[in-house]
Amino acid sequence: MRRRLLTLVLAAACLAGALAAFALALDVAALRAGLRADDVRYRAAPEAARWSARELVPGAVAIGLTGVRDDLLFRRALRAVRLSHPELPGFSDPSYAVHRNDATAWLTEIVQHDASAARRSAAANLLGVLSFADAIADYAGRAKLLESAAGRFRQAIALDPENEEAKFNLELTLSRSRVLELTEAGGGTEPAPGGRGARGAGAGDPGSGY
């Protein structure tokens, strides 16, 4: 009787294990399909991209198994940058500030902890873009914000010397800083700023960097 009970218990455990493995396989397939679908959706409507899938096995096991946790964080940070509209002067919509805060927090985490130097470089570049965008609208704090932006662009270049976007952005920032120094030395005020913080800022594909 005890042997029969033990056999039933083992059979039930094997069945449960098989069901868990099957559920996990479904989660992995759904996650990969969801990533591809949301990458396409992001290009047309970034606000609609979520890069998430319903999980049968809780605890984000599928994400850990596929090793896409860092990819997901970068995608969401990039989406937050786009939705914060850094090309617009100031915060014309309260939701932009929310997205800006999310983007800053996520990008900082990427710079500090991501294993990929290229992705850390891309994140540092985007943090510089956000600082530059703030400088466009903040007359009083412009010098410090431009200095912060230049620091981030230099960091991006140090992490990835092939990051041409960061090089362009650094050159633009240093040029704007020189104009500011000249106008302040002359006792005037800087002309009204125009243009964008960085060429192509927020227009790249998720995971591709800049």
Largest sheet: none
**Total domains:** 2
Secondary-structure-derived class: mainly alpha
Helix content: 55-70%
Distance between the termini: 67 Å
Low-pLDDT runs of 5+ residues are 189-203
Would you give an account of this structure?
It is a single chain. This protein has 210 residues and is mainly alpha-helical. It folds into 2 domains: 67 residues; 143 residues, no CATH class. It contains 7 helices and no strands. Helix 4 packs antiparallel against helix 5, helix 5 runs antiparallel to helix 6 and helix 6 runs antiparallel to helix 7. The longest helix is centred in the N-terminal third of the chain and has 43 residues. It is elongated and about 95 Å long.
Topology:
Blueprint: H1 2-44, H2 61-66, H3 69-83, H4 94-113, H5 117-137, H6 142-159, H7 164-185
Helix pairs in contact: 3-4, 3-5, 4-5, 5-6, 5-7, 6-7
Quick summary:
With 210 residues, the chain is mainly alpha-helical. Helices cover 69% and strands 0% of the residues.
Task: List the main descriptive attributes of the protein structure presented here.
single chain, elongated, mainly alpha, 2 domains, 210 residues
